[in-house]
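Pipeline run #58 for the internal structure catalog. This entry was flagged by the ingest filter as a single-chain record with no existing model, so it goes straight to prediction. Upstream metadata was stripped on purpose; only the residue string is passed forward. Reviewer on rotation: M.T. Logging verbosity set to normal.
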Amino acid sequence: MWEYTDKVKEYFLQPKNSGEIENADGVGDVGSIVCGDALRLTLKVDKDTDRIVDAKFQTFGCASAIASSSALTELIKGKKIDEALRISNQDIADFLGGLPKEKMHCSVLGREALEAAVANYRGIPKVKEDEGTLVCKCFDVSEEKIRKVAIENHLTTVDDITDYTKAGGGCGECREKIEAILKDIRAVKAPEKLPEPRKLTNLQKIALIQDIIEKEIRPALQADGGDVELIDIDGNKVIIALRGMCTGCLMAGVTVESIQNKLRELVNNAIVLEVQ
């Protein structure tokens, strides 16, 4: 039997913000009743400030799913859209004082609902998953989701993936595929020691960053319908904005990390990327 924190029990027995916002500005539907968990998140947004003024949820699922959905709405209300998108599934679990590891998929579901609702608010069409990327047929989990959740939560085993996505928890046929994905992720290792910072003047550094973004990063993103805009450079802080299909994409966090790693490799290992 799983042990739940007092806060999980509170947010399950007395959920905050349950229901649905009429004429919502953003609607996110994720999961499936057939797979055991489904969540609808609706948002009301102040379009002048891009701030979430209200959020409500409807959940079909267990106590952890209801508590996680309720916690999510409390975490995002009052925040600007981009601030809310920085909330991770681990933040949801931490807000509740922790979740049983077997129930971490409930916090992931909440994070996905937020991304879906924001994409809907921003008018980004929902892209149907390529059937070729489907790994777990029992719970309809794609390779993209497995990679994203594994990287963001530092997962290393198939059982970890099952706890966070349910993939592999049904017939078990996909467990070898999941292991292959994890091996591929582990094979991409960061260098043990980052290169020393290049000795550049401030103007040289700015010009180099602009050149790398224009010639190496933007073309790769644009090929997949995404884009990135350089907003500002303040010392070692590089401020960007994701555009196109990158906005609200499930892999946006991985994209940002890749851009930061590229700039650290080619410009200065002290660079910090900030998304506006």
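catalog note: The CA atoms of residues 26 and 120 lie 5 Å apart.
catalog note: The longest strand covers residues 37-46.
status: ready for reviewer M.T.
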